[in-house]
Design a protein that fits this description.
The chain is mainly α and 532 residues long. The protein has 3 domains: 364 residues, Na+/H+ antiporter like fold (Up-down Bundle); 64 residues; 53 residues, no CATH class. 78% of the residues lie in helices and 0% in strands. The protein is globular and about 85 Å long.
Length: 532
Amino acid sequence: MSIESAVTETAIEQNIEQFLLVLSVSLSVATISRLFSWFRRIPFTLLLVIVGLILAFVDVRLVNLSPELILEIFLPPLLFEAAWNMNWRDLKRDLVPVGLFAVVGVIISVVGIAYGLNLLTGIPLAIAFLVGASLSATDPISVVALLKELGASRRLRTLMEGESLLNDGVAVVAFTLLVGVPLGTVEQFSLPQIILSFFTFAGVGVGVGCLIGFGISYLTQRFDLPLVEQSLTLVSAYGTYVITEKFGGSGVIGVVVVGIILGNFGSRIGMNPRTRLIVSEFWEFMAFFVNSIVFLLIGDQIQFADLADNLTPIAVTILGMVATRAIAVYGLSAFSNWVAKSHIDIKQQTVLWWGGLRGSVSIALVLSVPVALPGREDITATVFGVVLFTLLVQGLSIQSLLEMLGLIGDQPLRQEYMETIARRVALNRAIAYLSDLVRKQEIDSEYYRYQAEFIQGELKSLQEKIDKMQAEHSQLVELDLELLREQLVDIEADTYAEFIRAGKLNKNVSPLLAEVFEDRKDDESMPAPRGG
């Protein structure tokens, strides 16, 4: 064995050992957080950051966190999972405020933080712009998870996730355009050049994402192989990022576009409900897996000595970030309410302001600052300090803010209702199966009668409980209608897919019911469904 081969094998073995160590620690945190009730009050991702900080304090470094590791390995699955689960109709309804937050909000953040640092600390403006660009991407993963758990409004989650998905791409593009300024590699940096470069980056990302997303959507209509379709989504997430970057576009925007297309279009026309569930569960696992590693490593990479040496720029940057976030959210919300009739109330605006956490994208961007740049360590320490503030201070206080604003929803009630509905559907299917068996004379009719009476009794009790819950909580009727609409759209889309697989249709037929239900969503004359 050559020396080179031996060194390679040793490096691979060390990487595997480091990976297993990180995974063991993160899964241990996940297990412990479920065993003790006090820990459940802390969002899982924030708990990982705290554990990482403890490890960093005792100088236990799990692995070196490089920008390539986050941008090319961790970021695509995180973006794809969020985009896959993003409801396009919800996002389209709030596209104006989300677009304003993601584009104009990023500009306000970059400019405000940069000029604040320059004026109050004397940091050169070119360097300050890099700090602002690094911190312009919001990463509200833990906040959105908490909103979901507490039953906050679906629209609030859509606004936060939609902004995060879009502004990740805008922030990466802004950083890419600004990073060459302090190095002197950009001689002339005019506004027309910035606009042209931005539309080039974004346009290539959107184009590649659309080609891959619609291509896979139509391809999966031709067969019904759950594991193959699941694998195609994984390949599309990483492949879109790599291909878009190769063509000079924004891989982040490309992954977001392909995720939205496959989640809202491809999974409807090309996957049956069982396959869609399998793929969704796979991406739920991927998001949990990647988040477990990323947030643990963020805490683990903190250098406390560097933070102590840069307390002034960190404090100034935090004030600038919070102030510019307030200007962006409250100002742009008012503009959107006036122009697009968005109706984002002051309580929702306050949560959007305080819930604008920074995370993995900010860390990846600042770590990609060239080593040759003077003061790189100070820039990195400043961004790490601000990210730490948003995760621990803002992240841990968001639940108290939601309670104070009265935005805690009725999630426990909805969960109980959904469990009751699920039991009714399951028992109806069970009695239908027994009826089929007795019709085929595969079971004794007396046995069927005994079991059927028992199931009918349970069904009667469940229906009485459902009727009582609907009478006491009128919002559950709309939940029932929403479930029925989704089932009908699924049946329609599955039928078209069957015709295509059988060769009776050569092209996709767009679902009609989705458009009809959207137009008649506010029709209150429809009675609540009662069947199983």
